[in-house]
Amino acid sequence: MLDSFRQRKERESQLQAEGRIPPGQSLTQKFPVLHYGPVPAFNPETWDFNIWGEVEKQLTLTWEEFNQLPRTKLLIDIHCVTRWSKPDTLWEGVSVRSLLESGLITLRPSARFVLQHAELGFTANLPVEIVLADNFLLATHYDGQPITPDHGYPLRGVVGAIVGRTDLKVPYFWKGAKWLRGLEFLAEDHLGFWEQAGYNNSADVWKEERLR
């Protein structure tokens, strides 16, 4: 146990020296499970994914149709507001930007924000530029396997830091909703579940924007 602790601290110090651990964060070698409420059931026959709001035409996809979309992999460091950081996490799923590039959705000029709608009424909000950036993904897989129910199966939003990409904004990990069912594009910002409870709306990990 002592050797494991020493190895973790050495790795943490290395990542801090590389600028990969934000202020107030500590390295974890586990993947903690944090959410509010029960884990919802999933029925692939009735599940659908919707995109609506400030788009030219609403898009609705079944689970089978969603899994036929072009896929991508994303390697990111993730940072939780509860002060743990996990480097080099590998995700697989669908890039929102690819939906625009393929013509599946067309945004209106008024689309400036996105509200992620998840099971049980949970929501998470982000500016549209983050949702369309390289470090945001609609993820179905983690580390080569389907996401576990506790971590958002069958679909969750994920956002984190790509090593070397200082041009990308990095919010805390709660800004990617578990058990995701849709994206609503908005002209005006609308606070998500945790933001309404007092969490910081911007949630920049490098500025330690945890609470309002």
Task: Briefly say what this structure is.
With 212 residues, the chain is α+β, with helices and mostly antiparallel strands. The protein is built from 5 helices and 11 strands; from the N terminus they run αβββαββαββαββββα.
Please describe what this structure looks like.
This protein is of the alpha+beta class. It has one domain: Oxidoreductase, molybdopterin-binding domain (Sulfite Oxidase, Chain A, domain 2), CATH 3.90.420.10. 16% of the residues lie in helices and 29% in strands. It contains five helices and eleven strands; from the N terminus they run αβββαββαββαββββα. The strands form two sheets. Strands 1, 4, 5, 8, 9 and 10 form a six-stranded mixed beta sheet that branches. It starts with a helix and ends in a 16-residue tail after the last helix. The relative contact order is 0.19. The model has no long low-confidence stretch (mean pLDDT 96).
Mean pLDDT over all positions: 96
Low-confidence stretches: none
How many E-type strands? 11
Which H/E pattern describes the elements? Answer: HEEEHEEHEEHEEEEH
Q: How is the biggest beta sheet arranged?
A: 6 strands, mixed
Distance between the termini: 38 Å
Helix coverage percent: 10-25%
Task: Quickly give the structural class.
Answer: alpha+beta
Architecture per CATH nomenclature, i.e. the level-2 architecture: Alpha-Beta Complex
**Strand proportion:** 25-35%
The CATH topology corresponds to Sulfite Oxidase, Chain A, domain 2
